[in-house]
Amino acid sequence: xxxxxxxxxxxxxxxxxxxxxxxxxxxxxxxxxxxxxxxxxxxxxxxxxxxxxxxxxxxxxxxxxxxxxxxxxxxxxxxxxxxxxxxxxxxxxxxxxxxxxxxxxxxxxxxxxxxxxxxxxxxxxxxxxxxxxxxxxxxxxxxxxxxxxxxxxxxxxxxxxxxxxxxxxxxxxxxxxxxxxxxxxxxxxxxxxxxxxxxxxxxxxxxxxxxxxxxxxxxxxxxxxxxxxxxxxxxxxxxxxxxxxxxxxxxxxxxxxxxxxxxxxxxxxxxxxxxxxxxxxxxxxxxxxxxxxxxxxxxxxxxxxxxxxxxxxxxxxxxxxxxxxxxxxxxxxxxxxxxxxxxxxxxxxxxxxxxxxxxxxxxxxxxxxxxxxxxxxxxxxxxxxxxxxxxxxxxxxxxxxxxxxxxxxxxxxxxxxxxxxxxxxxxxxxxx
Length: 432
Ligand SMILES: [Zn+2]
Known about the structure:
The protein has helices at 83-95, 100-116, 129-139, 157-171, 193-206, 218-228, 232-238, 258-262, 272-277, 285-290, 311-325, 333-347, 381-388, 415-430; strands spanning 4-12, 22-29, 32-37, 48-52, 56-60, 62-67, 119-126, 142-149, 179-185, 209-214, 246-250, 267-270, 295-297, 365-369, 394-399, 402-406, 409-410. The chain is α/β, with parallel strands linked by helices. α11 packs across α12 (333-347) and α12 packs across α13 (381-388).
């Protein structure tokens, strides 16, 4: 008998519609959801693991739709400054000291944090991405990976593209299908139009999507208009990039004509905490939603957030949308949670596999323990998850039906040794 896992008498939030919440059983076979419905008597079969669901709440694993996982080494290194100063004076000089083994170790550190906070899928844009792919393979997470392409000031931009393309082609479908890949031109201020045209041709030829920071600051929009006579979304549209599946990160400063362009993206990724911390602005989320955009949520890197977990993004997104529109109904709890689950899955083109709990979807599941003072009493599970729950309330996490975390313990990674190595590597890197 193949092994199976039964989540018994558990509260299930499928995240399809708010009213689909149920108390019942969820059976996982061969990594997929085989049954989800009212509790019933199961035949006591060999290899059936029964997980008791008392006070437990199962939801689709969170999708962190934009991060730079390896940046965990710079958490707290450069705070309280604007994007340009932060990036040019602080971050990029430190990142030139990174060696592939460092990216591996610091990404493991990030993976520990993602898993313990109930994130099961992340979209990453960074360097030495082979190392990040190795981390994904080992830790059991699902990921959409892309090598960051920054070519401004470089002599041979085509070599950048070759590297990013090679990574994308060699790694798509890796880790038992958990890895998908994209091309990631970093932004319009680091990738000129001629290069973006090359990226477009390669992406069309190889059927790859794009991952790009877009309209993050006013300066980016103004500089783009001066240099190319168009806003960043219009520049990309004019270059034909919106004909491809595109993951548009931030989109804080879209102008009137930009909304219909952004509606064509697979996802606009809202990173509210990072945006607030860098004082980049507040994205017009309700207007993006009403004009047809699929909005997902991301944390961005650990040194602009400074966490990688999604509950903070869900709550901050909901609060900001309400404040920006002066309407408390602007982004209700269920809708904000949906952005962090189904919205993320759609943004990454994975909605057929993950993002909701439904029969035959992949069993990527996060389980919260609601036996806590700040979750008692419970009138509304969506409200508690969006506004009251903490990442430490996550008690178990699985991807493809494999436990990565159970009873608040990591099962695929050795937390103490990863943390110790990270500290040692940071000390060496700083002295380089
Ligand atoms: Zn970013």
